[in-house]
Amino acid sequence: MPKRPSKSMVIRFYVIRIAFVLAFIALAARFFYLQIIEHDKYEQLAVSQQTSDITVSAQRGTIYDVNGNALAVSATAHMVTIAPNKITDEETRIALSEGLAEILELKYEDVYAKANQKKSQYAVIARGVESDVIDKLTEFLSTSKKFSTAVSVTESAKRYYPHGNLLSTVLGFVGVDSQGLEGIEYMYDAYLKGTDGKIISSQNATGTSMPFEYEKYIDAEDGYDITLTVDLEVQYFLEKHIENTRVEHNVQSRVAGVVMNVKTGEVLAMSTKPDFDPNEYMVITDSLTLDYLEQFKNDEDDNAEYNKIYTDTVKSYWKNKIVSEQYDPGSTFKIFTSAMALEEGLVSVNENFFCSGNVKKGAVTYHCHKREGHGHETFLEALGNSCNPVFIALSERVGIEKFYNYITIFGLREKTNVGLPGEVSGLHHSLSSMSTYNLFSSSFGQTFQITGMQLIAGVSAIANGGTYMQPYIIKEITDSDGNIIVSNEPKEVRNVVSEKTAETLWEMLEFAVETNYKNTAYVEGYKIAGKTGTSEKVDNGSYENSKRIASFICFAPADDPEICVLVIVDEPNSEVQYGSLIAAPLGKDIMYDCLKHLNIEPNYEDGSSVQSVKIPYVRDISLAEAKSKLMAEGLTVKVVGEDLSDSTVTYQIPGSGKKLPVGGTVILYTNNEKVAYTTTVPSLVGKTAAECNTILAASDLNIKVVGANINFPDTVAVSQSPAAGEVVDKATVVTVTFE
Fold this sequence. Notes:
By secondary structure, the protein is α+β, with helices and mostly antiparallel strands. The protein contains 23 helices and 35 strands.
């Protein structure tokens, strides 16, 4: 009979059995944890060990102007990467790092640090490498199989801005990874960037890539293209003129300008100077700024103060002043105060006022810029004179509540949502806290702030007949096949004033330009309506300083407005600081170029105004060449002396630089023929226009006609200047008035 196991053996058996069961449970739990709970984690680790991913950059979308000119493009470049875990020895690591650093113009220490990450499979050495550099790199890698095994070159995209600084504060720029960092590049990055692709390569246990059939290629999806409302030619005119003004008047806080189509709300141009080149966005290219920064350099190696100021300065140049900075609009705001009073029927154009030079309201005395006062003046004249006391009186009639409401209606409290990043809204008195003193100072554009974008949008609403149009700068966004993803069209937002009020202001603002800014903003042949502003600038919370902002806003043609121009000159450091002397000539030059570009021709009605041209210098050249130059300017020629093509012009009357009406006559003397400088003005009163023209031509004089219906047989000269019998220089223009 078998021997029964002892009690201790039974206990030991059960203990071992329980231990096995517990171990099995623990092992099963561990398997469950690893294969179920942590499945995704370990699957990813396995994939990362068995595969190698190389990113294929998507082509970033192109940005175009309204006429299809490329403003920001992505061209094919290359990205150089390294697989540190494939570098088998230190000698190879050093040699490879030295070669890469030299060819790619990088620091050896930086390249070696990446190559020395021995367990890493992937590290980016350089992006945006040009093809000629890749050719040199390929030649270098071919010298060693160890080099070519460790280094990969893939196509990527590099951002180019073919027009350099042009429109840079609007376009912005992208960083080294093609991510938008400023401007349109930043705000519309999600549309522009596209989706990167991948090349996934399988690897064996040693980390070596498997044959081609084990690779998987995921196509990149290119970004969308963006077309702006900006016209590149108008942009060029704007930037050329504001840069000239910045230099001429030594402007301390930048000059900004914007051009808008008043009928659609489209932004045609926008700029702030100084700006930057988005191809090298950390580099200051402005010579005046660089000269200023020189004072902060020292002999020390670090130049910490200089570097900080340099960096802060270049970053400040990235800002778009038109949308991101608020300022006191000054007298340009009087356009809105005028609109309020006219719309409410509180004033008539010819109502009489009296300006003594100041007006006292309670404890505060408000001054007119003309301290001795304007005396008696109509409302029409007061707007042209920019008379503060009159506008204080108008605001008192309007009242706080209506004044507050009109500011809202004109869009001066909210962002315009033009489609640009960094836009801010205006800073205004609240209705509950607005006092009569706030009302009075606001009437002439002080003690509150708006942006340039808000101002031009509001004035454009008046210029188009009273409708506030939604401002926009993005015309459309399209995919690579040309399908429209986003499209913006002109959008009416609300009515701000009646058409009658708007047209009354057109006439008043045209009168202001023709009378008060005749020498600075008037353009012969064009009807321009506008208003200047010279506002005091807040510094450390106070207006008690010498800093000024000169501005000018205008639209044209005044009888059927098409475009509006705003310029802001922030802190001119020159002898003159008034908007009428600094900003008005700037706005005029921009407006003139824009009107010509847009084929809006000058209108010289019924001979009442005749276009003039500057006479070129034509002495000491052949007669044939001189005639060609003068005729190209629309002038006619009278020759005294030998009239042969190869004759030399020895003298001209009038001299170069002087002006003549188109069709006027220049007298050319050849081969040292004796010059007769003067002639006697004949009598013209009672003669027809044709007779006057013949008589003056015989006397070597030019004619300027004033009056209408000059071709009617009963229209005759009633006066002339210079008077009959006066001795004048030949080619003098005689102004003849006809009735």
